[in-house]
Design brief:
Helices cover 88% and strands 0% of the residues. The chain is mainly α.
């Protein structure tokens, strides 16, 4: 059980870093790890609630993007538009990191 909790904590912490970097790029007021961590946790809770309440995936996507941008804007101290930009930049940073780390891990696994 503790391994699951630890894995979840590490995953959320790794998801927080791109949000923190993106907030710094757009010039948000609050760019510390704690603020970014809170924004990511709230975004995850919102996503879970939307998936339960709304059966239509397209509606979940639209409402999730708008509400997620509002979460980033409120928690990180910026505008709604910059909140949206934070989510896009964070997604790009996370995607590039996954590609780089995934390739590195595949090389390590094949060498072993």
């Amino acid at each position: 059980m503790s391994a699951i909790v630890l894995s979840l904590a590490v995953a959320i912490a790794l998801a927080t870093l791109p949000v923190m970097f993106a907030a710094r790029i757009v010039g948000a007021e609050r760019t510390a790890f704690g603020s970014a961590f809170l924004a990511v946790v709230l975004q995850l809770v919102l996503s879970a609630i939307l998936k339960v309440l709304m059966p239509n995936e397209a509606a979940v996507l639209v409402v999730g993007v708008i509400a997620g941008s509002a979460i980033y804007a409120y928690v990180l101290g910026t505008s709604l538009l910059k909140g949206f930009v934070i989510s896009v930049i964070a997604l790009v940073i996370a995607f590039v990191a996954i590609l780089l780390l995934g390739g590195s891990l595949a090389l390590l696994a094949s060498a072993a």
